[in-house]
Design a protein that fits this description.
The strands form two sheets. Strands 1-2-3-4-5 form a five-stranded antiparallel beta sheet, with no helix packed on it. It has a four-stranded antiparallel beta sheet with strand order 7-8-6-9, covered by helices on one side. It contains two helices and nine strands. The two termini are about 25 Å apart. It is an alpha+beta fold and about 150 residues long. The chain folds into two domains: about 60 residues; about 70 residues, Alpha-Beta Plaits (2-Layer Sandwich).
Length: about 150
């Protein structure tokens, strides 16, 4: 979650999320100057950027939010999205989300069954994904991420 004391702005991220029919997403970001912004929330529709990444974003006018054009520096955080299958009981969802917290990941609920997951930099990402692979094999959820 963004710190309420920071003066954050929206940055637009162009995405191609055919699963959820989304072409763009707004993220909160801390302006650093010179068209640079530090991302302050976990994206729901792209895994290309993560909490703390510094991005360059340009506005085409003063009336529009800036749009990301590139990642300048990676924070080490990783983004995943998980989506629970319709048959996954609520108690099982809760248990899985608690386990993700125990594994040093935080989450934000987007809509329906979609959750944005932020994995801290010091986490063994391969082991984290292996855990999600087990859950996917049990038909409890699906997930997506990218390799940097």
């Amino acid at each position: 979650m963004p710190d309420s004391k920071e003066k954050l702005e929206h940055v637009i991220i162009n995405v191609n999320d055919s699963t959820f029919g989304t072409a763009g997403e707004r993220v909160w970001a801390l302006p650093l100057g010179n068209e640079l912004y530090e991302v302050r929330n976990t994206p729901w529709h792209t895994c290309e950027i993560a909490w703390g990444d510094v991005v360059k974003a340009v506005a085409d006018s003063d009336e529009h939010w800036p749009t990301m054009v590139e990642v300048v520096r990676r924070s080490g955080h990783r983004t995943l999205q998980i989506f629970f299958h319709k048959g996954t009981p609520e108690a099982e969802r809760s248990r899985i989300l608690k386990e993700l917290n125990r594994l040093h990941a935080s989450y934000e609920h987007a809509e329906g069954s979609l959750y944005a997951i932020d994995v801290e930099p010091d986490v063994d990402f391969a082991a984290f994904c292996a855990y999600l692979d087990e859950l996917e094999a049990k038909d409890l959820l699906g997930y997506r991420t990218v390799v940097h």
